[in-house]
Input
Amino acid sequence: MNDITKVLKGKKILFFSVQTFNLEKEIKNTMEENGALVTYYDERPANNNFTKGIIRLKRDLYQKKIDAYYEKILSEIKNERFDYLYVNRGEVITEDFLKKFIELQPQCERIFFTWDSFKNHSHPTSILKYFHKRFTFDYDDALQYDIGFRPLYFLKKYRKVKTEKNIAPVYDLLFLGTAHSDRYIISNKIADWCSANGLSAFCYYYMHGKAVYFYQKIFDKSFKEFDYKKLSFKSLSTDEIVELYKKSKVILDINHPGQKGLTMRTFESLGAGKKLITTNQEIKKYPFYNPNNILVIDRENFELNREFFETPYEDIPSDLYERSSIKGWLSEIVCNAETDDWKSLMKQFK
Output
């Protein structure tokens, strides 16, 4: 692994990212811990539910606001000189801004990374051409768009979970996630299986807001199954999640049906040294896949067994563990070439 500190020390980074469970702060902190001077902007003009919704559903109606926001940013940074422009996800940032920024600062190295599939959010495909290096967490998108493939990462706080092995688990199974698609139905069925087999389960369902819930209740058939009393409208902090990981034996991951890239939960379990049950069949292609640690289930007809809960976790190789950390992730997207990615590590299945 490259020494990211030597590369970033004293370098100025212009960093754009949507706000999402404070991950943007973790990325900024990691850059700064390795010597970078970071100027951060939210990709969105505002972070309220209205702004998030209208950008996704009717971006054209909000385009003037978006354009004004990015013109303001250009004005604020006109006297700055950046070594790197880093865009995380690329949900909102405009072509016009990128063109003007490149004209003003052609020397700046431009890096793009997304943790969303292009079929879920296609805007980034229109701006890929403005970056020197482009990476996605979705293996299929990397192949289709001929860009770099780099999975997600775990935050350094999860290392402590791995080292504190003397804590007796309170829960045999832990599920934490935003309430969407069939997640609620699957996790409830698995929690019921745990109860029937003498195992304890804890499920936390996050909902962005009450208005979103009632809208989905009308238009999304899967939401008719939701028990309103089980939903929470407060997102958990990283520290709260880490504490729950410490108390849990196995983590449950239910990926969105339309998404193949591995979730943050996958890498959090890896960092914490916890076993994982997942509906994402793609995980079998990854170099850290170990059936002793990872149980892949069919979301339509799952099969579980007590033995998986009772056998100990087997550590993965230390170099692969470090590559899977946030520092390893940052090192690879900053220091490595776009072609020097994870494609060569993936297992191929016919």
Remarks:
- The domain at 4-153+326-345 is CATH 3.40.50.11010 (Rossmann fold).
- The longest strand covers residues 171-178.
- The radius of gyration is 21 Å.
